[in-house]
Amino acid sequence: MIGLQYTLFQGFAHLSAGLTSGMGALAAGICIGIVGDHGVRAYAQQSRLFVGMLLILIFGEALALYGLIVGLIIATKNPPNGCTFTGPSPPNI
């Protein structure tokens, strides 16, 4: 692994990309769970609500896709000039 440097910027970029994707998926899951629960109960009373419920579920799933896209953009971002700190250097013996 000589010549490969994993910079501090790349580490924080990958951390934030993972957090962004995870939080987007969590928000989508919560949205789909709540809408699905109430939608099924409403569909049992009126069957014409199915299409509206399905559209709301699709828009809830879009939250996860937006989080994934933003995470990919963050993970592939190049560090700005002068940001090459890789951590403490080993002592010279």
Average pLDDT figure: 86
CATH level-3 fold name of the domain at 17-75:
Four Helix Bundle (Hemerythrin (Met), subunit A)
The count of DSSP E runs of length 2 or more, i.e. the number of strands, is 0
Helix and strand composition category:
mainly alpha
CATH architecture of the domain at 17-75: Up-down Bundle
Summarize the amount of helix as a percent range. 55-70%
Order of helices and strands: HH
**Tell me, what's the shape?**
rod-shaped
Attribute tags:
93 residues; mainly alpha; Four Helix Bundle (Hemerythrin (Met), subunit A); 69% helix; ATPase_proteolipid_csu; F/V-ATP_Csub_sf
Kindly summarize this structure in a few lines.
This is Putative vacuolar atp synthase 16 kDa proteolipid subunit 2. With about 90 residues, the protein is an all-alpha fold.
Structural account:
The structure is a single chain. The mean pLDDT is 86. The chain has 93 residues and is mostly helical. It has 2 helices and no strands. It starts with 7 loop residues before the first helix and ends in an 18-residue tail after the last helix. The protein has a domain of 59 residues: Four Helix Bundle (Hemerythrin (Met), subunit A) (Up-down Bundle). The protein is rod-shaped, with a radius of gyration of 22 Å.
List the helices and strands and how they pair.
Elements: H1 8-45, H2 50-75
